[in-house]
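FW: tagging you since you asked about this chain on Friday. Here's the raw sequence from the shared folder, copied in full. Didn't touch anything.
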Amino acid sequence: MMGASKTMEQSTPNPRALEAYLRFSYPLGYAPFPGQENVPYPEIRFTSVPGRAKEDYLKELSRILEDIFETERQYSDAAFLSSGVDSSLIAFGIRARKTFSVAYEEQAFDESALAMHSAEKLGSEHHIVKISPADYFDAVGESMACRGLPVGDASYIALFIAAREASLHTDVICSGEGPDELFCGYPCYSRYFDNPCEDFWLGVNTVMEIGEVPELPFYGGDGFLKMNAFDLTEWMHGDILPNLPGAEKGSGISIRTPYMRQDLWDFALSLPVKYKADRTMGKLLFREAALPYVGAEIAFREKKGFPVPVRKWMRLEPFKTMILDALMGTIARTVLRCVDVEEILRVFYIAGDDSVWKQIWEMYALIRWLETT
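HL: got it, structure written out here
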């Protein structure tokens, strides 16, 4: 008990950090958890050149990508492979000999068939990591213990499990993080054009209502550019990138992120919005650059976003009881005393309202992180 008390005292977030975590599902840079420095991220400056031809942008992007692939071939011949263009382009670009994807029984969440099709086209030795609800929940504690800060992003645990399996076959693997933020690939970017407003970005970067969002760092520009700047700073550095060392620590594998190169970032910041997204899809120019490598079917495939069926699994036993025990336990009553936990649980488990599943998962992940830190 004394050890648990000491851990809570050292790790329990301050109210501002807890509020930010529960609204965004990951810690924000300006609201630090214990041990997290309040260091502002570099300012994002969009620097498009007026009048530059699309063909010139495409040639420059293609040159950067080819240089990235040539460099990465020296380090790895393995890649994570989902159904999307980002991971597919990496796999085809480095001519991966081994590829890895995750699979679920729930077909609506399963990308493995499309990934397998891509692997067959590439000719790689493809490994499908089948994740059951038991596999997933068994990995929650260890995955949170391996991460420096908590995260309510359900896909992190799937990545953690996939990395563990990949480590049995390779020491180094490439992952496709980056283009969705750099080139505006998330569906929210396309939805913006039907409702262009300055605060549009707030509604898609938090699970709460816009009016409830706390004070955030200032980003200039319209709602589209604010959304892009937020994704490149808070989202990228609070969620996406920290997931990778957690997965590395739990598996012993080295995960490389080829798109995290400064020249690609500088290029993306210089690219006009009209070449990033429109009402139909995002990553417009990026997809064109991918065409020679992966073909039109993959290059223009709709984004799925590495979904995990955790919202369905949360209602199954024994996982439901595990969640209820954690959220009604001593640590939760101390840490979450400002949250009406019982009401949120009632809405999900009794009223059957799925809209609050993410809040429940965020709280459960936080408690598991506190238990194992």
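FW: The first helix runs from residue 2 to 11.
HL: agreed, and The first strand starts at residue 78 and ends at 80.
FW: great, closing this out.
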